[in-house]
Amino acid sequence: MSVDQTQSTPGTALPPTPLDPTVADPFAWLEDVEGDDALGWVRERNAHSARALGGDAFATTERAVREVLDSDDKIPHVSKVGDHYYNFWQDARHRRGVWRRTTLDSYRTDDPEWETVLDLDALAEAEGESWVWHGASVLRPTPEQLAAGEPRRHALVDLSPGGSDADVTREFDLVEKRFVPAAEGGFVREQAKGSLSWVDADTVYVATDFGPGTMTPSGYPRQVRLWRRGTPPAEATLVYEGTEQDMAVSASRSHTPGFERDLVRRALRFYADETYLATGVGTPDQTLTKIDVPDSANVGLHREWMLVRLRDDWTVGGTTYRAGSLLAAGFDAFMAGSRDLTVLFEPTATTSLAGVTWTRHHLVLNVLDDVKNLLHVLTPPAEGPAAGGTWARGDLPLGGELLTVGVGAVDVVDSDDVWVVTTGYLTPSTLSRTTVGSGQAPEVLKAAPSYFDATGLEVAQRFATSDDGTRVPYFVVGRTGLVSGADGPAPTLLWGYGGFEHAILPGYSGTIGRAWLERGGVYAVANIRGGGEYGPAWHQAALTAHRHRAYEDFAAVARDLVATGVTTPQRLGMEGRSNGGLLAGNMLTRYPELFGAVIVGVPLLDMKRYSHLLAGASWMAEYGDPDTDDWEFIRGFSPYHLFDAARDYPPVLFTTSTKDDRVHPGHARKMAALMLAAGKDVTYYENIEGGHGGAADNAQAAYMAATHWTFLWQRLGGDA
Q: Are 542 and 597 in the same domain?
């Protein structure tokens, strides 16, 4: 493939390498997201990408992926709202998607009868806007309304233009199936990063951009207000205002009958917030009482119970509770000063808490043991927290070896039913429903088809050893002889993330199967530090000055794939997105000898500027503050500054979205321009829509996927 050259700006000399952060950035003009010059550069690079990757192999891959995304056999996941089950659906006929509903009896059939509630394609055409679905929330009627047979009517629908994080919220009438315009007293929040949440049928909490000084440096609301129907949003009553340096504020109401509560949350930064119990909201007697737990802990309320999930050790009442533990207390007693806490979960060397799900009477713990799911059922004492009884414990035997099991409540207020989703790298997803505590076998409601032939394929979990001796798990998927190394080396893609305490778990992907595994490729996933696979400690081990450990872990997995005969450096590619894009940038610049190709998706790369671009300021707890002495360690993982024009680098594909208002597209643009100016092998593609997800519809997603897989197959010695 030929490599185009690019200049920083017309007539500008090439920048020094490594790039000196004390001099003016010659590619700063590419941060002008929709500037004419910047978009002209983007169009030129996109055209080059299309020429370089286009052809029969690209078209075949694009069609194969599109068939998966548009398949009518996908599982239509639903949410229960009264007697209806709602689903948002996209396929070939519904590019933008359709919000629809059915009954449980109909949903159980092979061909449910769906009633369209909102057609986004029709809405987009009528309004001339490329709407992307961001979700909906429905107000739960009061017991009196339910007894009177009143239908669920009031919904708040979130829509994004082009997929950006900044969206709008509009009130929607579920009975009349129409938006309620502001002229009729409907709640309408104009485009911004923010939210509306129901208080009652005539009142909402609104957090949004109210004008200068009302948004934080991270670009999120600094104020939350109580907004009453029929009044201008600007006149909504201020409930809480954070400081100029906070990350965000919000408020919500629990609608559980008998346990209605209002909570205000002040996000200080990632992994640190304050939660307040609010009483008398919107009146002169309003009171906010802080729930006295560590700022790093997560607090959740269910009826009379409070759960506290710890990220750090907590010493209280003469007892020290370990980070990663889950504690329970009676909420009223805790607020009155009691510190009688029950340990519901405590981590071990191999286990961590992946999630908790309340039903009406039970609590389901989803535990990871060496990145494999175990489900436990806890039942609080029937007499309540005041009696000091013990929690009954049992198991929910679902899933299997190397499978991921997810659990969600069907109706947390009235039911002990849960949705159960089981999936694996070679196991299509299955959706079941079961009643916790019933002892009955789950009812399988839906099963996704196999989108690729898994005959002769296998999944293996292995462990690599990082530079400091840490044991790092990873999964390998491919043909049996390739996974064992006996028939290698094979073209291999290694994927990773390693940030924000996010655990990467096995899951079925028809796209990966069709575009990669069926063609003889091997797919591997590294569970590196910075993620949440082993709880908070695994995450904290790679924060700020210790960020290098995540990259050392990933490099260790790459070396292990070579040492076990699965692949060679020339046939090993890697991919990461977002924080994983920063990982990919570091693999590219710190370990170029380990890879034959690198894909860098919607990335952070200029770590000197990141905290000044869009939501970047909210991530300083993860990476550090480059405007302080932290820069001394941050520059060690800033790919834009690690680049050296004299070094050899593997071919690289950068992808981003013009509509990404979370991670600035300037990161990918500038890094690509810097490398192109030095004559490196760079492919670049920027989708105009899509936001941080990269694609706004299935057609865009299929094109993006074909770009990725075609690039990899060309560069890693496939038979394309």
A: yes
